[in-house]
């Protein structure tokens, strides 16, 4: 679970830096690039871009490409061992969590287009540093905890594909599917330590593979000759014959067979079209990130996609625990969402949001309580994972008086409604869709990304791992204020993806009062929100588990927590302010707290949080669609919560194995370039002191880039 999005809810290593550099280069290109080719003249402005002709480009992925090798028929000294797969840590949670996977290279192709329909051919070649570790299984070992006989690393060096593309163009965008041939070469590296002498025996095997690829992508015309895109491809490169892989000291030779090799790759791309193209006109009065008027007043169809690449250099870390932040890595996340709406009849609307997500946050979204990527999910996956994140019905009861027109938008069918009204929502949604909103800091897809800045950190809103729950929300709205409340399911236990069906014994309640005003001295609008929440869920009491562990009844405090979880209540509140200072400048602030006695169920390991910042539009320098933001936060935990981590506890996001406590502090700055009405590219920097409340580790610096597009 990750974020409340706007539609309703250690320096990078050398290879990883290439992906970040590609996105940063695009920002400069999209804003200032000169036309590199003469556009074809047209008598009238086109309704969509004609992508016909040749193109060349560069592509890169930092942390959002994953490869897996499966090995079978393995023998060690003639004794059979179980099948194994790279990336399977065999009980070792530290294997692979700090790995940066990066792919980057060149591509080129040719398009033919008839009306909005496109077909073409494309070839690409890319270098890679995909290194996936696995422990060589011990022959005859059954169950978990196999110590392994050595470390196997599969390193892919070069990929190449030859693909056909079929797509559909609309406005400045192109969506397409692709298929074709794929090839790669790789090295299998083995290291076998000798327990007696400490010497390590190594072995190597070179492999070449040929198979097929399937994929899809989207690209956007940024200038008359440059396009920015996101491209996903799945590669299946088959297997190989049986081969020898060195020998384990004292046990004999190792032989195995590569049964399969698959890879999922998500690429950011920048392409040059030398023939150029004529851009369709933009709707001048449309707001950024609100794609337009939709297709009527009964149906609504919108979409979004967001790609974030983020890296962290090395930092001071004298020790590392099971949920610690790891330095020297880059990771990426990608989401793509459809917002489908239908007005059943006046006042009754039905909505459905399927969403694909891929990738992981840094260190598998662990190591910082106020995590640094609002799109990073605890339910991350190396492949695009489809979820039905929202499905709900909205019933609006008008109470008469003045009315307002609401334009078509994501999860909003165009309608006219009474300002004074009662709204009831039932189904699956994110509590951030309706609670703890803030116009300046609430959408990690376009503004702040730090969890302690875009949300009230101590608000443990009930949710599954991606951030959604099921229940009912009721709101009474007037021009000057609104009151809303929700009753929803909670997870079955902390950080569980399964919602508890016992809604009359375990559930969450949130109540919020929202006041709206115009400050006379500024003549600018603002909002003040006060929220209260109480959750009853299956959680452990910190004092109890610390006492049981210190008394010697449990050897591991996390075992004590798992054994003593029961229905317990957590309560808290938040205060949330947004205030416009001028038409371009706004400020925001939040304060939140909970009782800090029991485990959090859903969000993160924060008991007290204060944050604030400023947001400024770029009107003063001739870029009114751009935004620059500066925010800061400070997070803290209760004394019993500190004792839990000091004794080796692992929470939702953090756990260094020990703790030298200090509040966690963060500063975040971002600049969002509005490349056009629907496409935004951002650069982001964050500095975190005492990550995971541990003064022994850090400070850590984070560098990120983000592409966001609305449809």
Share of residues in helices: under 10%
Q: Shape from CA axes?
A: globular
| Rg for CA atoms | 26 Å
Average pLDDT across residues? 87
Main sheet attributes: strand count, strand direction, barrel closure? 16 strands, antiparallel, barrel
Approximately what portion of the residues adopt beta-strand conformation? over 45%
Distance between the amino and carboxyl termini: 24 Å
Number of helices in the DSSP assignment: 5
Quaternary structure classification = single chain
Strand order of the largest sheet: 13-14-15-16-19-20-21-22-23-24-25-26-27-28-29-30
Low-confidence stretches: 1-42, 88-96, 284-296
Structural class: mainly beta
Q: Tell me the total number of β-strands.
A: 30
Chain-wise SSE layout:
Elements: H1 14-32, E1 53-62, E2 65-76, E3 79-81, E4 84-85, E5 102-114, E6 117-135, E7 151-170, E8 173-193, E9 200-221, E10 226-236, E11 242-248, E12 252-272, E13 299-312, E14 329-345, E15 348-359, E16 381-398, E17 403-406, E18 415-418, E19 421-429, H2 451-454, E20 469-477, E21 481-488, E22 508-519, E23 524-539, H3 542-550, H4 557-564, E24 566-580, E25 585-594, E26 608-618, E27 623-636, H5 639-646, E28 664-674, E29 679-689, E30 700-710
Antiparallel strand pairs: 1-5, 1-12, 2-3, 2-4, 2-12, 5-6, 6-7, 7-8, 8-9, 9-10, 10-12, 11-12, 13-14, 13-30, 14-15, 15-16, 16-19, 17-18, 19-20, 20-21, 21-22, 22-23, 23-24, 24-25, 25-26, 26-27, 27-28, 28-29, 29-30
Helix pairs in contact: 3-4, 3-5
């Amino acid at each position: 679970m990750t974020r409340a999005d706007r539609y309703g809810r250690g320096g990078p290593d050398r290879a990883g830096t290439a992906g970040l550099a590609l996105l940063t280069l695009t920002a400069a290109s999209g804003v200032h690039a000169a036309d590199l080719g003469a556009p074809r003249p047209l008598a009238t402005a086109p309704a969509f871009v004609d992508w016909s002709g040749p193109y060349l480009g560069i592509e890169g992925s930092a942390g959002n490409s994953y490869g897996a090798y499966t090995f079978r028929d393995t023998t060690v000294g003639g004794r059979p061992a179980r099948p194994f797969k790279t990336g399977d840590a065999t009980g070792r949670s530290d294997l692979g969590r700090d790995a940066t996977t990066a792919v980057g290279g060149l591509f080129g192709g040719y398009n033919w287009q008839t009306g909005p329909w496109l077909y073409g051919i494309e070839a690409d070649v890319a270098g890679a540093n995909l290194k996936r570790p696995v422990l060589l299984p011990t022959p005859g070992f059954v169950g978990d905890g196999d110590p392994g006989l050595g470390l196997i690393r599969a390193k892919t060096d070069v990929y190449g594909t030859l693909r056909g593309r079929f797509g559909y163009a609309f406005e400045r965008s192109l969506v397409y599917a692709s298929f074709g041939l794929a090839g790669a070469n790789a090295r299998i590296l083995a290291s076998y330590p000798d327990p007696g002498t400490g010497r390590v025996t190594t072995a190597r095997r070179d492999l070449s593979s040929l198979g097929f690829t399937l994929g899809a992508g989207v690209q956007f015309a940024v200038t008359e000759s440059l396009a920015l895109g996101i491209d996903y491809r799945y590669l299946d490169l088959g297997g190989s014959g049986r081969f020898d892989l060195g020998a384990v000291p004292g046990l004999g030779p190792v032989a195995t067979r590569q049964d399969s090799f698959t890879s999922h790759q998500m690429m950011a791309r920048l392409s040059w079209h030398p023939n150029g193209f004529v851009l369709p006109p933009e709707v001048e009065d449309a707001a950024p990130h609100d794609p337009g008027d939709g297709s009527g007043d009964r149906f609504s169809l919108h979409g979004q996609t967001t790609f974030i690449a983020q890296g962290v250099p090395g930092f001071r870390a004298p020790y590392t625990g099971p949920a610690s932040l790891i330095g020297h890595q880059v990771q990426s996340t990608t989401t793509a969402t459809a917002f489908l709406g239908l007005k059943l009849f006046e006042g009754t609307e039905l909505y459905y949001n399927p969403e694909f997500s891929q990738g992981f946050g840094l260190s598998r979204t662990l190591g910082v309580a106020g995590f640094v990527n609002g799109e990073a999910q605890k339910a991350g996956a190396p492949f695009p994972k489809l979820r039905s994140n929202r499905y709900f019905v909205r019933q609006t009861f008008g109470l008469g008086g003045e009315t307002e027109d609401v334009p078509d938008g994501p999860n909003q069918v165009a309608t006219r409604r009474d300002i004074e009204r009662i709204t009831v929502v039932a189904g699956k949604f994110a509590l951030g869709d309706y609670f703890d909103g803030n116009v300046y800091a609430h959408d990690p897809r376009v503004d702040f990304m730090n969890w302690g800045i875009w949300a009230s950190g101590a608000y443990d809103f009930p949710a599954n791992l991606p951030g959604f729950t099921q229940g009912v929300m009721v709101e009474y709205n007037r021009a000057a204020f609104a009151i809303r409340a929700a009753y929803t399911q909670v997870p079955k236990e902390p950080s569980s993806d399964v919602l508890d069906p016992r809604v009359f014994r375990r559930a969450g309640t949130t109540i919020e009062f929202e006041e709206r005003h115009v400050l006379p001295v500024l003549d600018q609008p603002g909002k003040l929100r006060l929220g209260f929440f109480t959750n009853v869920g299956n959680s452990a009491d910190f004092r109890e588990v610390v006492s049981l562990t210190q008394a010697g009844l449990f050897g591991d405090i996390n075992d004590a927590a798992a054994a003593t979880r029961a229905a317990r209540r957590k309560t808290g509140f938040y205060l949330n302010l947004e205030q416009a200072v001028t038409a371009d400048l706004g400020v925001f602030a939040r304060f939140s707290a909970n009782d800090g006695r029991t485990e959090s169920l859903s969000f993160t390991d924060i008991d007290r949080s204060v944050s604030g910042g400023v947001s400024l539009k770029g009107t003063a320098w001739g870029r009114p669609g751009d935004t620059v933001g500066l925010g800061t936060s400070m997070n803290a935990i209760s004394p019993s919560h500190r004792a839990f981590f000091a004794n080796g506890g692992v929470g939702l996001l953090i756990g260094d194995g020990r703790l030298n406590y200090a509040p966690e502090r963060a500063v975040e700055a971002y600049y969002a370039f509005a490349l056009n009405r629907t496409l935004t590219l951002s650069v982001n920097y964050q500095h975190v002191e005492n990550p995971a409340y541990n003064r022994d580790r850090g400070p850590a610096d984070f560098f990120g880039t983000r592409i966001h597009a609305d449809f």
